[in-house]
Amino acid sequence: MGSPRMTLQTQLVLRALLEDPAKQRYGLELCELAGLPSGTIYPILARLEQVGWVDSTWEDPAVHKEAGRPRRRFYQITKDGAEGARDALARVYRARKQPLPGWVARPVSDGGAS
Amino acid sequence: MSARRRLAPRVKTRPCAVPSLGSLLATVRTHHPDSDLSLLEQAHDEAALWHAGQTRRNGDPFLTHCVAVAAIVADLGMPPAVVCAALLHDIEDTSCPPGRVAERFGQETADLISTVRTTRLNEIPPSALNLGNARPRPLQPTREEAVLAIRLADRLHNMRTITFVAPARQHRVARETLELAAPLAEAAGLDEVGRELHDISSAVLRPTVSAWAVTPRLLTVLTLLLPAPQRARWQEEWHAELATLPTRRARTRFTARILLSTPRLTLTLRHPIRQERW
């Protein structure tokens, strides 16, 4: 299925999901965790779901009826997703370590390569 | 504004918020003209004595609740003994020594009060009771009927003043009322009580349209942009999120952000397999 485009927002969402991969979270909760405004997150979640990185399910009726609110949609990162996301995040991180084009002024990194 | 909710249409039996002892006695007298009402005055004084200093969540003295419950019970045509128990129905929560009620108001009243306290709504069999208008008056209720009348009156007054309770508790109580108390009242022939319980609980569980009208409708319209098979899911998901937002401002902000991101979501959903570039 490929992998999603790793925009900054996508990275934030993946990080939020990876914080506790076993936990199911709903949209607004993820917004808060990722520090993103509500709205941004839904297209990202839809994309992640398409590529099979995220699974979503409706809330258990017993829970939301007890709480007296409509049922929520819960998202959870899949096994594939967790692997893919860690991989992709690492790749992004490595990519960032590489020097930027010469016309961008860049402070010398503490890695020592100049 | 959002917290202010329109409750059920007012029923003719509640012209003033806090019925007085005088109006309570008058009601009992209309149903039971020959009865001795000094017992009720005593019960009122007793309740006033032990509930002194206690207040309800809306700031009223607690005694108003006792009188209000008794007034509802009296309205149903219950005899003075039951109205008396209604006045004293919460007295076991006070520092009133056990045995005092039995001593002053008789063992039967004391027993009725403890039964009211210990009976759970779901333990009352609905079919055995008939308190409706078909019943000949003056009413001589059985023990079960008296218990039911006091429990329902208690619940009804609590529901009428539920705005002062924390929202989570409001929901819980309203749900229980809708599932247990209202059907029980209707099964016992107390249509008006049942209807009011039903209306207030529904109003609590489903806040009024006015405060909510704009944003949910806009959300629904927004889902029309999405591919048809997916609309229902996103609509439900967004509405669920919207329902948990506490203020109108937060709801508006949420909707505005959904508005901004819907085109993107539409693109995402319409082009599922496109391999995206890095």
From TrEMBL, chain B:
Gene Ontology terms, MF aspect: hydrolase activity
Residues in HD/PDEase domain copies: 58-168
GO cellular component, one term: plasma membrane
CDD domains recorded: HDc
The UniProt record lists the keyword Hydrolase: yes
SUPFAM superfamilies: HD-domain/PDEase-like (SSF109604)
Alphabetic keyword roster: Hydrolase
Domain of life of the organism encoding this protein: Bacteria
InterPro entries (UniProt xref): HD/PDEase_dom
PANTHER family in the cross-refs: GTP PYROPHOSPHOKINASE, GUANOSINE-3',5'-BIS DIPHOSPHATE 3'-PYROPHOSPHOHYDROLASE
UniProt protein name: (P)ppGpp synthase/HD superfamily hydrolase
